[in-house]
Amino acid sequence: IFENFDSLLTKRRCQAERSIVVEVPSVNSLDHVLHSCCAIGQVSSLFHYTTFNKYVNKHKEMLLVEFSEPISAREMMLYCPTSSSACLPVRSPFFQYHDQRTSPAPLRQSQSLSTDNLNRQEQVEKQKIFRENLLSDKDLKQSIFSCNSISEQMKLFYDKTKLTDLGSRLRFLTCRQVEVALAGPLPHLSALPFGSSVNGFGHCLSDLDMVMQLEHSELVRACPEWAESFVLQNASDTAFGQQRVSSTRFLELVADVLRSTSPGCTQIVKVLKARVPIVKYHQQLTGLDCDLSINNWSGLYMSELLYQYSALDARVAPLLFCLRLWAKEAQLTSQHPGRWITNFSITTLALYYLISLRILPPFELLKKHARPEDARVAENSLDCSYLRSLSRIAALHSPPKATRSLTLEDLLLGFFSFYDEFDFRKHGLTIIYGKTFIKPDSSAMYIQNPLDGSLNVSRNVTLEEVERFSMAVTRALHSLHQDAPQTSPGWGLLSLWSSSDHRPLQAISLDWNLIFNNDVKKSPPHSAEHSSADSNVSPQN
Ligand code: CTP
Ligand code: MG
Fold first, then answer.
1. Separation between Cα atoms, residue 154 and residue 525, nearest integer Å
2. Given this model, what pLDDT does residue 411 score?
3. What's the pLDDT at 220?
4. Which of 307, 395, 415, 493 has the highest local Cβ count within 10 Å?
5. Exposed, middle or buried: residue 49 (CB in 10 Å: 0-12, 13-18, 19+)?
């Protein structure tokens, strides 16, 4: 756990700058790749993983190599030749390894590693090869079945499915690829992950949300007063001088650059008409589905807030994991946007419940104690300043003693009991004050957005979906209360796993060409199961 979100981003971004990914012909060549990497620079860690390309039904053996110094990764990008058929030199942290066993890779003069050193380093580094083995659904259920309590099941589910160190590294490396691809025209660009990749609620299979920052944040924050009097000549009468046009044009450019220069980026789709325009793509070399946006600062600052809440109490993340699982299995959530509740709304409901127990502080407290260094302004001049120091928050807020002994099981049951009683027809709720209020409009569910109090996080949710939510809550409460013996196959947390009597979300086939743009013709979408009504629903409300 880091003292604040920025330290997490800095550490992971530095790691990504020192890292590369190599596709290897087979596991048998790992030693040889390691030997070759040691000739380039000192290797600090190695991770072996396998990607499965669902579009061509093929496995690839991959190696993530972290060097001790960023120069080694940079030199590799600089010196390794691009394919002989390419007319532009292409830079990327993704490589393919060609076995040169008959003629070992020569050491360049700048590396003065003796053969002895190499051998010694190899011995050490060989032990640092980690293999990413995800449990199958069946094995996971078996392990959960063998637990002694629901709390133990919840903790195990969290430990076995949360984002791993390698998962996190691959996410930051996928961001790094975007930075490298655009470094020519935009040397100060940062691509930052947000959402469940960094907010503490990341599942190993979660999508990657990314936001691009075009200038150094220090430059933006330290803008002197006189700079407000000057605007660059022509800035407002060019396409790039107008915010809306400029961000969609820029994203079009980014999509083209990724398509033409960045290995592994496939299924590229521009979703420019959404309220937050994005480029969607699948990065096959890291196995990640990506949503790339620009200027979505509030999304990033919201993730930072969730990160802080998840880090304040060790029970928050396991509880959220189980609630997200329950919502998925009860088919309340879907990977596609629509009229249903989202994981983000479920998260806010859970935070509200924990704030009402005073396990977590209301957001108001964090806002009140913001220091000058916590000042942040998001798009549309939205003030996102709040205290960004875990130790200070912990010093300001001490949960009542009685809540400390509440187990994960208590909290899970408590969540369901709480929302079983909650009157969504009448009341809205807010984590700013940890209070309910009379709904100001006819939305079926009203959860105030903590960063922008005028917005409702669950504006998209229909009455029918709220009813399904309430019914699922009652059903969950009932299943968990059943006191099924620990020998019965679906005891405890397993009872929240899918049962066939729920009505599935309707799959409406989508005509992407009508909704987005012609580009889609060239790149099929990730899935055909999208609702045409949802094309312009933004991830932001
Ligand atoms: N977000 C927001 N306001 C919303 C919806 C989303 O600020 N109305 C921000 C939140 O920071 C959220 C992030 O955008 O974490 C990404 O949204 P989404 O992908 O929907 O949620 P995740 O937390 O990433 O969950 P999932 O695993 O379902 O992707
Ligand atoms: Mg997400």
1. 34
2. 98
3. 56
4. 493
5. buried
Q: How far, CA to CA in Å, does 181 sit from each of 19, 47, 59, 83, 190?
A: 16, 24, 25, 16, 11
Q: Which tens digit of pLDDT belongs to each residue from 378-437?
A: 988 899 999 999 999 999 999 999 999 999 999 999 999 999 999 999 999 999 999 999
Nearest-atom index, ligand 1, CA of 347: 23
ipTM strictly over 0.90?
yes
The tokens for 442 are 């006819």
Atom of ligand 1 nearest to the CA of 202: 27
Question: Cα 353 vs. chain centroid, distance in angstroms?
Answer: 23
- Determine the pLDDT at residue 151: 97
How many whole angstroms from 29 Cα to the centroid of ligand 1?
Answer: 40
Helix (H/G/I), strand (E/B), else coil: 261: helix
User: Is the minimum distance from the CB of 344 to ligand 1 under 6 angstroms?
Assistant: yes
Residue closest to 98 by CA, chosen among 187, 147, 29: 29
- Which amino acid, residue 53? N
For ligand 1, say whether the CB of 540 is within 6 Å of any of its atoms: yes
Rounded Cα distance between 478 and 501, Å, is: 15
**Of 252, 300, 258, residue with least CA distance to 283:** 258
Expressed in angstroms and rounded, the spacing between residue 195 Cα and the centre of ligand 2 is 5
CA of 73 to the centre of ligand 1 (A): 32
CA 483 – ligand 1 centroid, Å: 35
